[in-house]
Amino acid sequence: MKRVLVDSGCSIKQEETKKYNIELVPLKILIGETEYQDGINLPMDEFYRQLINDKIFPKTSLPDLGDLEEKVNKYIEIGDEVIILTISSEISGTYNAIKLLFGNNEKVKVIDSKSAVGGMRLIVDEINRFRELSLDEIEDKVNKFIPRIKIMAIPETLEYLFRGGRLSKKEWILGSVLKIKPIIGFVDGKVRVLSKKLGLKLGMQALANALKECECDKNYGIIASYTYDRANIDKLVEMTDEQYKKQIRVYDNLDPVIAAHWGPNAFGYIFIGKE
After folding, report:
1. Is the pLDDT at 148 greater than 80, yes or no?
2. What is the CA angle 162-51-196, rounded to 5?
3. Whole-angstrom Cα distance, residue 89 to residue 239?
4. 141 and 128 in contact (C-beta within 8 Å)?
5. Better-predicted residue by pLDDT, 67 or 274
């Protein structure tokens, strides 16, 4: 039997794990002196209350490696194989830590998603499509699939990305002072500014147009992601062509471990481009 473990940077909720046939590995969030497990003991409402009202800037960290090692070893002892999918190694040390933990164990395959949130959801779907193949074959399929993932999002404020080290000071100044809205995505696993638009409306229109420009593959659907409030994502959907509106498969209010770096009211689309 193959077990698929995915770190909580995927933003898949606990109640969705049966649907995806996975187990979540919670990353940690530090708020002040209190440490939480993402998706376990930090309710979304409480997280956003502190984020918005208390103006906190949370820190995120690796999952509990001891618990993970114990769980994986139990699966191996009963003859199972394990796939562990992590958030991009360019924005978190999770992949490298887990890779080091299990070394070259032939029963464990650690895969760097080079992505996050909805991109990881799409990878989980791909893993499930080929679950009967060998671990090496699944890894090969996933690595060929990853470059097709498109993540395009606009944060309402750049303060959280800047403080978390995901954005340069120059880019922060451009967005904060000149009111330029950067469209942010992943390039080779790194968070990058893909383009810049003057004002929110032009930014939204660029996101809506990107589905056609990038030749969104309708076979995989579209993930509409947002943090805290749906107002911005709903406006984006209104601007979107009808043929793509029908392809939206989920509205994902991002988990705290990701929202901690994006801040409230960020929004965007995640989809698969044509081969």
Report:
1. yes
2. 35
3. 34
4. no
5. 67
| 270 close to 210: Cβ distance less than 8 angstroms | no
Give the chain as a 3 state SS string: CEEEEEEHHHCCCHHHHHHHCCEEECCEEEECCEEEECCCCCCHHHHHHHHHHCCCCCEEECCCHHHHHHHHHHHHHCCCEEEEEECCCCCCCHHHHHHHHHCCCCCEEEEECCCCHHHHHHHHHHHHHCCCCCHHHHHHHHHHHHHHEEEEEECCCCHHHHHCCCCCHHHHHHHHHCCEEEEEEEECCEEEEEEEEECHHHHHHHHHHHHHHCCECCCCCEEEEECCCCHHHHHHHHHCCHHHHCCEEEEEECCHHHHHHHCCCCEEEEEEECC
Gyration radius from the chain CA atoms: 18
Enter the pTM of the model. 0.93
The closest of 49, 265, 15, 19 to 157, measured between CA atoms, is 265
The residue to which tokens 């009967």 are assigned: 132
- Which residue matches tokens 């911005």? 232
